[in-house]
Amino acid sequence: MPYFVAIGIVWAYLTKRDLRSLLSMRFKYPYLILSALVFQILFNTMPIGHSGLMTVLYVLSFGCIVIGLMMNWNKPGFKLILVGSMLNLLVILANDGTMPVYLGTAHLLHLSQGSDYLATHHFIDSNAWDWWLSDWLPLPLFIMSPGDIFVGIGVIQLVLLNGKRQRE
């Protein structure tokens, strides 16, 4: 995801958009979205154990993001972010609350199977029916899902279409 944020910022700079205008955007239920995003960051960066409670909280945080995005459907970029979030939620629900990571891509990026340290991910092979929705797209330092790509393009759209043009 950092790649998409960086692309959006650079593109906004090149097209002379004022990113400060993003700070004045008004959202319905902003705390729902922000608190769910904080949980997502914590779940995806901290080595927390895989317990029933953590799985429920992880899935609920995705649900809160989806609800928040639906409530702000009219904002540029949010439709694509919503589609990506729903794809990710679908594959997570189909995998008992964890995001599958394609083992072949993990090997390509030199991630060991022993690095399955987060409660939010698990390794799969191409025999899984939903591997194509999993994290399998290699980028340097990251493995992304098709849902992540939709979210990323939506973030770029959000930055570009909500950043006001600077006066010259």
Provide tags for this entry.
two-stranded parallel sheet, mainly alpha, globular, 168 residues
Walk me through the structure.
The chain crosses the membrane at residues 29-49, 55-73, 80-103, 139-161. This is DUF5317 domain-containing protein. It comes from Alicyclobacillus dauci. With 168 residues, this protein is mainly α. It has a domain at 2-96 and 144-165. It contains six helices and six strands, in the order αβαααβαβββαβ. The protein has helices at 2-14, 30-45, 52-71, 78-94, 103-108, 146-162; strands at residues 17-18, 99-102, 121-124, 137-139, 142-144, 164-165. Strands 1-6 form a two-stranded antiparallel ribbon. Strands 2-3 form a two-stranded parallel sheet. Helix 1 (2-14) runs parallel beside helix 6 (146-162), helix 2 packs antiparallel against helix 3 (52-71) and helix 3 packs antiparallel against helix 4 (78-94). The longest helix has 20 residues, at 52-71. The radius of gyration is 17 Å and the shape is globular. The chain starts with a helix and ends with a strand. 32% of the residues are buried. The model has no long low-confidence stretch (mean pLDDT 84).
Q: Largest sheet, order of strands side by side?
A: 1-6
Cα end-to-end separation: 31 Å
Largest sheet: 2 strands, antiparallel
Structural class comes to: mainly alpha
Low-confidence stretches: none
Q: List the helices and strands in order.
A: HEHHHEHEEEHE
